[in-house]
Amino acid sequence: MTEHAPRHFSRRAVLGSMTAAAVGSSLAIGQTASAAPGALATPRAPQLLWHPDPAGDGLKAFEGIEADRGNAHPDRDYVVIEGGDHYRFNIWKDDRDTTGDGDRQRTESKGMVQGGTKLKMRDGETWSISYEMFMPTSLHGTSKFTHIFQTKTPVDNGGPYVVLDLGRSGSTETLRARAYANSGSPDIASTNLAPLRNKWITIEWTFTIGSSGKAGFVARNGTGSSAPVAVQGSMSNVKIPDQDDYVRPKWGIYRSVESASSDILDTYLLFRNFKASKGT
Fold first, then answer.
1. Is 178 part of a structural domain of the chain?
2. Is 35 a residue whose pLDDT tops 50?
3. Most buried among 93, 124, 152, 212, by the most CB within 10 A?
4. pLDDT tens, 222-236?
5. Number of folded domains in the chain?
6. Is residue 20 in some structural domain?
7. pLDDT, tens digit, for every residue of 67-125?
8. Are strands 79-82 and 86-91 parallel, antiparallel or unpaired?
């Protein structure tokens, strides 16, 4: 795909409601069927709850969009459907968010919506979230924060708990999955950013929600479950609590503008093939 600057697009608007099949038990003539003593229940497979179609669901796949909240650039389209099959998140170097006293900018979606219902990740639950992502050359790693994925709680804006960052150390740019709310914001996994640019890659997360939760991360250098693994890691005792509310993911570009000006460019980020499954 050829690198190009953010463009303007028209907005176009979640999958239909999920249906559940009930399996009934039958009675043999003169006998009642029953499980053998001590039999173990068969674990259910994770349930796919979210897989939005950009062309059909549009921005209704999310709880909302956070971009240009001060309405400084009403002529700009920040999150749009492009090509009918993916979401494009645009950001300009002169954008500023209403938080942070002008030191940051944001183009993000928040939450997951299925059939008009918010999906909520709560303490004790295990969730798997995957998606494909395209990062252009103009989207740089930075010395200050650049989050392209976050997990937070709506009730108190708690977090971010686990994030995906684009970082920089000297001339080396990195992709970093981090337990951001833990002491020292340690890396769950980290790798060189350069080989992952200008192509569709696959991101896979696994979360167990809680104040001492778990997080797993895989980045694949290509699309699909058979694409080679670029980096992976997991961590226990990760702070990702629901705060008696719920945890929701956020996607897009949220970055400090206090990094080098050469790293704060007009740019964009593409996403497609979102999936979220809840375990048992």
1. yes
2. no
3. 152
4. 998 999 999 999 999
5. 1
6. no
7. 999 999 999 999 999 999 999 999 999 999 999 999 999 999 999 999 999 999 999 99
8. antiparallel
Question: Closest Cα to residue 88, out of 251, 258, 257?
Answer: 251
Residue with tokens 């000006």: 261
Q: For residue 206, give the amino acid letter.
A: T
- The CATH number assigned to the domain holding 128 equals 2.60.120.200
Amino acid at 249: P
For residue 62, tell me if it sits in a domain.
yes
- 261 phi/psi in degrees, rounded to 5: -60, -25
Q: What's the average model confidence in pLDDT over 172-186?
A: 98
Q: Give the integer Cα–Cα distance in Å for 148 and 136.
A: 13
**What burial class does residue 273 get, using C-beta atoms within 10 Å of its C-beta: 0-12 exposed, 13-18 middle, 19+ buried?**
middle
Is 31 within the bounds of a domain? no
- β-bridge partners, 175: 166, 191
| HEC assignment per residue over the chain | CCCCCCCCCCCCCCCCCCCCCCCCCCCCCCCCCCCCCCCCCCCCCCEEEECCCHHHHHHHHCCEEEECCCCCCCCCCCEEEECCCEEEEEECCCCCCCCHHHCEEEEEEECCEECCEECCECCCCEEEEEEEEECCCCCCCECCCEEEEEEEECCCCECCCEEEEEEEECCEEEEEEEECCCCCCCEEEEEECHHHCCCEEEEEEEEECEEEEEEEEEEECCCCCCCCEEEEEEEEEEEECCCCCCEEEEEEEEEECCCCHHHCCCEEEEEEEEEEEECC
Length of the chain: 280
Structure tokens at 270: 């593409």
Query: What is the domain range of residue 116?
Result: 47-278
Q: Could you identify the residue written with the tokens 């969009």? A: 65
Tell me how far apart the alpha carbons of residues 72 and 62 are, in angstroms, rounded to a whole number. Answer: 23
Q: What is the pLDDT of residue 45?
A: 81
